[in-house]
Specification:
- The structure is a single chain.
- This protein has helices at residues 19-30, 43-52, 64-78, 101-129, 150-170, 188-201, 205-213, 225-236, and strands at 10-14, 34-39, 56-58, 83-86, 132-137, 175-182, 247-250.
- By secondary structure, it is α/β, with parallel strands linked by helices.
- The chain has 2 domains: 10-182 and 224-244, 3-Layer(aba) Sandwich (Rossmann fold); 185-222, no CATH class.
- Helix 1 crosses helix 8 (225-236), helix 3 (64-78) packs parallel to helix 4 and helix 4 runs parallel beside helix 5 (150-170).
- The longest helix has 29 residues, at 101-129.
- Mean pLDDT is 96; it is low at 1-5.
- The structure holds nicotinamide-adenine-dinucleotide (NAD).
Amino acid sequence: MTTAFQDDRTALVTGGTSGIGLAIARRLREDGLRVAVLDLDRPQARSVANAEGFPLIAADLAGREDCMRAVPEAVAALGGLDVLVNNAGFQHIAPIAEFPEDTWDAMLHVMLTAPFLLTKLAWPHLRRSGHGRVVNVASIHAQVASPFKAAYISAKHGLIGLTRTAALEAGEQGFTVNALCPAYVRTPLVEHQIADQARTRGITEAQVEQTVMLESAAIKQLLNPEDVAALASYVVSRAAWGMTGAVLDLDLGWTAR
Ligand SMILES: NC(=O)c1ccc[n+]([C@@H]2O[C@H](COP(=O)([O-])OP(=O)(O)OC[C@H]3O[C@@H](n4cnc5c(N)ncnc54)[C@H](O)[C@@H]3O)[C@@H](O)[C@H]2O)c1
């Protein structure tokens, strides 16, 4: 498919076999990039990567060793690395007083430490690229809080700090670092939350969407993964060379009030 941004760069998308990551991987490929996806070593991830024709870097970003080998493996698979999309993540909902410590550790590792390690290891390749890009998929929960999501919100707030610091350090080295902050997007992660909340609250899934997930939104409609991918496509494009350290809201008007 021909798009505005025909390109010859290479990209690694973490969490790239589901939801937002898969939409970004597909969109960057449409834009002309060669794309590899990183995901957990699971049959589901393998079959999506195979069906889509993306090389799969099988790695668990909750562990440091897997993070350290992911970038060299991606470089070997792609012949270089110009674009890193730190997207992998997961949610666990519990009050702080009951939040499992090992779940906290895993969430902080996947959603904050892994983006740091992958950015660190990708750094020489991004610098060499001349048009390198790091895109960190944060969340509107990088800017506002909600109860019972302490690890997720802490990791995402931290990711904004990493984005801004890396952007300052990368400025003279020819690549950009930005963060995307979507509100709720219709993905497997959110579909599970909707079903859980409907059961817990004894209301319909449509009511959960309108009264729980979209309560603070001006536009009362969930985003689609392709909406986030379109924003990522622009940030990755050569046209966006002057945008760095940006925290880009795609939040249905959530933070306007
Ligand atoms: N869905 C939303 O409403 C929403 C909103 C804002 C931000 N986000 C963020 O977008 C990103 C993608 O979320 P999604 O909704 O597409 O979820 P998803 O569950 O559809 O996809 C997440 C992907 O990350 C992978 N992943 C999880 N743990 C991993 C690990 N330890 N190692 C390697 N890969 C791992 C999963 O296997 C999966 O492929 C996440 O960072 C999430 O926080 C989602």
